[in-house]
Write a structure and sequence with these properties.
The protein has 281 residues and is of the alpha/beta class. 43% of the residues lie in helices and 19% in strands. The chain contains 10 helices and 12 strands. The strands form 3 sheets. The chain has a 6-stranded parallel beta sheet with strand order 6-11-10-9-8-7.
């Protein structure tokens, strides 16, 4: 996505989140503090990797364009408990209205980035990459995919529109791997690559015979993955997926796969404990 498209998407996502909290009426508690100058600090209560800064800045801008936001860390930076991540200055009522929505974004997204970084660390010394999946929170895919990148992972496909991937239901609908490949290739642009998900070594043979550029080994045990890598012998990019936990990563990476896609990066990421603290003066 281009920078302009991303910025527009962040504006829309933030607007929806603020509408949930303010509903057009505003903050009926915080409005009592309107006109009072204030400062606040976004700080960490636990270690993590930062993501979501753009959403914090955009939340402040939409609540009150006069609010000043100074970031002390960049997305992708590691931080420790007690670290200052950003400061806000301006009208106290505006800062109070910003607080929960901004924290929701940065706590959730930093959780994704932090978990991704832990998975990436398990690939050290190998050529394998950790990638996300399309298992994302509806409406938050852009920000969650960015969080994976901030944690050192790869976004993988953003959606169904940007890469062709034949999965098990396509294979079933077509009556086999070769038939599914033929159908998709017949309607695909010549520059598009094609990845095929396979559940067995027999399906892998079919996919390779069809000339695909990438294969996804789905829910295969480690020994089968090792055999698959030998069968592929460099003829296609090898991705593995299906219930991958952090304890599985080192073995899969050492087996020689290229990509390890992990739905847990978004479905299992715990939120990072962050707070917005009002400052004196």
């Amino acid at each position: 996505m281009s920078g302009g498209v991303e910025a527009a998407a962040v504006r829309e996502i933030v607007a929806r989140a603020l509408a949930e909290d303010l509903a057009g009426y505003g903050d009926i508690t915080g409005r009592a503090f309107a006109g009072a100058p204030a400062r606040a600090r976004l700080e960490a209560r636990q270690d993590g990797v930062l993501s979501g800064s753009a959403a914090v800045v955009e939340t402040a801008r939409q609540v009150d364009p006069r609010l000043e936001v100074v970031l002390a860390r960049s997305d992708g930076d590691a931080f420790a408990a007690g670290d200052r991540l950003a400061e806000l200055a301006g009208d106290a009522a505006a800062i109070l209205a910003v607080e929960r929505t901004a924290l929701n974004f940065v706590s959730r997204l930093s959780g994704v980035a932090t978990l991704t970084a832990a998975f990436v660390a398990e690939t050290a010394g190998s050529g394998a990459r950790i990638a996300g999946t399309r298992k994302t929170t509806p409406g938050l895919r852009l920000l969650e995919k960015q969080a994976i990148v901030h944690g050192g992972g790869a976004a993988h496909r953003f959606g169904l529109f940007d890469a062709a991937m034949i999965k098990d239901n396509h294979v079933f609908a077509a009556g086999g791997v070769a038939a599914a490949v033929a159908r998709v290739c017949a309607g695909a642009a010549h520059l598009h690559g094609l990845e095929v998900e396979v559940d067995t070594l027999e399906q892998l043979d079919e996919a390779l015979a069809a000339g695909v550029t990438a294969v996804l080994l789905d829910n295969m045990d480690l020994e089968t993955v090792r055999r698959a890598v030998v069968l592929v012998d460099g003829r296609a990019t090898i991705e593995v997926s299906g219930g991958v936990g952090i304890d599985d990563v080192r073995g899969l990476a050492s087996a020689g796969v290229d990509v390890i896609s992990v739905g847990a990066l978004t479905t299992r990421a715990p939120w990072i404990d962050l707070s917005l603290v009002m400052l004196e003066g």
